[in-house]
Amino acid sequence: METFIDRYIAQGEQRGKQIGEAKMLLRLIERKFGTPSEPIRARIAEADADTLLEWFDRALDARSLDEVLH
């Protein structure tokens, strides 16, 4: 049986993974397009894991930041 503590730890691990994914995406964006604005950074920080992965995939081939995020 999963306890509250188990769920809390799992949520923390998931959030830590998302933070890592967001950092990787931000690094790719910065290397490819230059330093993103604070609103873009906030948008990335608030995105869920599936969205981060989609944006990361787009960033690999995109010619602009707009192509990544829209």
Q: What does this protein look like?
A:
The protein is an all-alpha fold and 70 residues long. The protein has one domain (4-69). Helices cover 81% and strands 0% of the residues. The chain contains four helices and no strands. It is elongated.
Largest sheet at a glance?
none
Distance between the termini: 42 Å
Mean pLDDT: 87
What is the assembly state of the chains in this entry?
single chain
Unreliably modeled segments: none
Number of strands: 0
Q: Based on CA inertia axes, which overall geometry fits?
A: elongated
Order of secondary-structure elements = HHHH
Number of helices: 4
Total of domains: 1
- β-strand amount: under 5%
Q: Structural class of the secondary structure composition? A: mainly alpha
Helix fraction, binned, reads over 70%
**Gyration radius, to the nearest Å?**
14 Å
Structure summary:
With 70 residues, the protein is mainly α. The chain has four helices and no strands.
Keywords:
70 residues, mainly alpha, 4 helices, 81% helix
Strand-helix topology:
Elements: H1 4-33, H2 38-46, H3 49-61, H4 65-69
Helix pairs in contact: 1-3
